[in-house]
Amino acid sequence: MQFSKKLINWYSVNKRVLPWRETKNPYYIWLSEIILQQTQVKQGLPYYEAFVAQYPTVFDLANAEEREVLKLWQGLGYYSRARNLHASAKHVVNALKGEFPKTYKELLNLKGVGDYTASAIASICYNEPTAVVDGNVYRVLSRYFAICTPTNGSKGVKEFKLLAQELIDQDNPAEFNQAIMEFGATWCTPKNPKCISCVFQDSCLAFAHNKVEDYPVKIKSAKAKVKYFNFLVFISDDGNTIIERRKGKGIWQNLYQFPLVETKKAVDYTTFRNQIEQHHLLKNIPFKLSLYNSEAIVHKLSHQHLYTKFWIVNVNRLHAEGISVNDIEQFAVPVLIGKFIDAFNFK
DNA sequence: AAGTCGGGGCG
DNA sequence: CGCCCAGACTT
Q: What does the sequence similarity comment in the record state about its family (predicted)?
């Protein structure tokens, strides 16, 4: 039996029940695909349910404020997805009268929609035979055909896209695309793949060579950089604190945080106390400084390890506009900040 | 082509 | 601890 038929047969028996598999509404498919970028189903599922409940249509999403969308996205990471999601919803409503693009090529024009997502939506919603290539597809195909080309280089990207495009079931691209991803996610897994009970056991080249876990081949990524973050947690006598909206291009864009002082290396109490005497929020006012966590909290991201200290700054009155500590939960904050807020009793 | 962007989970 | 995840975008 040919690859695509065997795969779709496997899928019909083994697929998980998931809410976005109960619809072909492009708004819901688009929403699920954005949420699931670089995100496992288990992690993304509750966010999908929350977004569908909060924004049942693209019009509801377009009418929301960005800070509200970011708040609902809080904790999921890669926050540009949420900003692009919101911007694209506005574009669909305002420029396209609420009608989603219906072709791979047109879908690519939406912010946050690249080759993978455009292929997924076009195939699932409109039966366009455009092959998806995600992390699962790289793994399944590199093993089945024993392909050593690194999957994360430009050569590999082209090669695997072309191969998937040759394999896709022209009559049922929607099922094929979802099947190959589901197979990678649940059977042909990175560790301990279920080769013993695999329908491709007799034709998988990696299995024949006993090298299944040598695939896919990848170019090593750079090691994470170390940074030292010091957050100033102001507390005034009247129960206010200061949070700021992150600007610029870096991490956590448009999320909120306590005023941040980044240092080149870890600082002790005396060094830091002297350093922030000149801070614009502390100039010429009395304050009491105490360190919340004597041992730095290490927050690990893909490209940065953040060694973090939270400094409690007691003042009589704030030197800038503040918020009541009771209102802090209304703001979208990074997980690092959210964990502190939960652990620290503000009252 | 290489960096950047999060956070959770697994062995 | 390193690697992976229904990738996209910038430099």
A: Belongs to the Nth/MutY family.
> Is A199 a domain residue?
no
SS (H, E, C) chain A: CCHHHHHHHHHHHHCCCCHHHCCCCHHHHHHHHHHCCCCCHHHHHHHHHHHHHHCCCHHHHHHCCHHHHHHHHCCCCCCHHHHHHHHHHHHHHHHCCCCCCCCHHHHCCCCCCCHHHHHHHHHHHHCCCCCCCCHHHHHHHHHHCCCCCCCCCHHHHHHHHHHHHHHCCCCCHHHHHHHHHHHHHHCCCCCCCCHHHCCCCCCCHHHHCCCHHHCCCCCCCCCCEEEEEEEEEEEECCCEECCEECCCCCCCCCCEECCEEEECCCCCHHHHHHHHCCCCCCCCCCCEEEECCCCCEEEECCCEEEEEEEEEEEECCCCCCCEEHHHHHHCCCCHHHHHHHHHCCCC
Distance in Å from B5's C1' to A255's CA comes to: 14
Instruction: Answer whether any strand C atom is within 7 A of the Cβ of A115.
Output: yes
Domain that holds residue A98: 3-132+151-190
Task: Indicate yes or no: strand C within 7 A of the C-beta of A130.
Answer: no
Express each pLDDT in A86-133 by its tens digit: 999 999 999 999 999 999 999 999 999 999 999 999 999 999 999 999
Residue A284: CATH number of its domain: 3.90.79.10
Same domain assignment for residues A70 and A118: yes
